[in-house]
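Inverse folding, one chain.
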């Protein structure tokens, strides 16, 4: 994908399986939104092939669109509508595409409850707080009970309770409704909690692809062990924390204190990956 002469996505190639929750991570400007917009059919790629639910998003019809849910990074309109009214209006567009095994749209009361907007059902959209507005964006994204859901930074502005509720909602959509979900986020904890698989994008290339645990093992591959012995603090980084601790305890039978074993987090992995690929713009081996 190029914007004018500038190539912003370079040889991007990935597949997402049905029911998978995939988090697209990467620094500002890495190309996450561009990727999502191409998959949604809102942006025409300069080259290459894209299939979503078996069809090209650019030429797919409304029946295809009824199976896809979208939460954009931001939008600003519909301020005078009431929350319930707006959801019912959007929901009505999906009704013609309902089937006996896939009723659409979502029941409005159930949806309001799921996104935590029951108390705001009669409020005007313009009177909602930023976080409530974002919840409404999520509700609009899922009102048609999509099979494929795109979420671009869905939890920006969420308070901790809203965030926890949103995570439960995503798990529910994935586990109970088999919804395939592709989301972008800058919250690495969120990615670690939600995603079956993580794609890290940097300068328009995929630089890592795998579960949070497998990426942590393969990229940093380290466990940090801290302890105190005779009042002196020590720290050691090792590939195998269990073996190291076993030896450590055997070597110091008189006892060590303050033992702490910390495995690499997704944040360590992410920072290591991005730093590694920050040096050059050339393609490198993808860690998978
Ligand atoms: N409409 C546009 N015209 C020209 N360049 C654009 C356009 N949209 C995005 N870009 C450029 O493409 C690159 C990728 O942008 P994109 O918005 O996809 O990144 P992102 O990973 O989603 O970033 P963020 O985390 O900040 O949302 C950036 O360098 C950006 O400046």
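Residues assigned per position:
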């Amino acid at each position: 994908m190029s914007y004018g002469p500038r190539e912003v996505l370079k040889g991007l190639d990935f597949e997402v399986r049905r029911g998978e929750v995939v988090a697209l991570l990467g620094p500002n400007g890495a190309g996450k939104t561009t990727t999502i917009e191409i998959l949604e059919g809102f942006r025409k790629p300069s080259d290459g092939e894209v299939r979503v639910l078996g069809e090209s998003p650019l030429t797919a019809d409304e029946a295809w669109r009824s199976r896809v849910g979208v939460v954009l990074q931001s939008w600003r309109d519909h301020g005078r509508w009431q929350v319930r009214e707006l959801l019912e209006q959007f929901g009505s567009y999906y009704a013609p595409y309902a089937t006996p095994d896939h009723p659409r749209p979502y029941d409005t009361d159930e949806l309001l409850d799921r996104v935590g907007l029951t108390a705001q059902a009669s409020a005007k959209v313009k009177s909602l707080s930023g976080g409530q507005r974002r919840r409404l964006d999520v509700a609009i994204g899922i009102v048609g009970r999509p099979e494929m859901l795109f979420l671009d930074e869905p939890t920006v502005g969420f308070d901790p309770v809203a965030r926890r509720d949103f995570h439960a909602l995503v798990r529910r959509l994935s586990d109970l409704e088999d919804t395939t979900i592709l989301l972008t986020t800058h919250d690495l904890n969120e990615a670690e909690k939600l995603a079956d698989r993580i794609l890290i994008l940097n300068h328009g290339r995929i630089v890592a692809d795998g579960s949070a645990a497998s990426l942590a093992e393969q990229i940093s591959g380290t466990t940090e062990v801290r302890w105190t012995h005779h009042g002196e603090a020590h720290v050691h980084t090792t590939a195998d924390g269990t073996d190291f601790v076993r030896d450590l305890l055997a070597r110091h039978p008189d006892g060590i204190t303050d033992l702490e074993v910390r495995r690499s987090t997704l944040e360590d992995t992410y920072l290591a990956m991005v730093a590694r690929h920050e040096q050059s713009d050339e393609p490198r081996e993808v860690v998978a």
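The mean pLDDT is 90. Residues 3, 8, 26, 28-34 surround adenosine-5'-triphosphate (CB under 6 Å).
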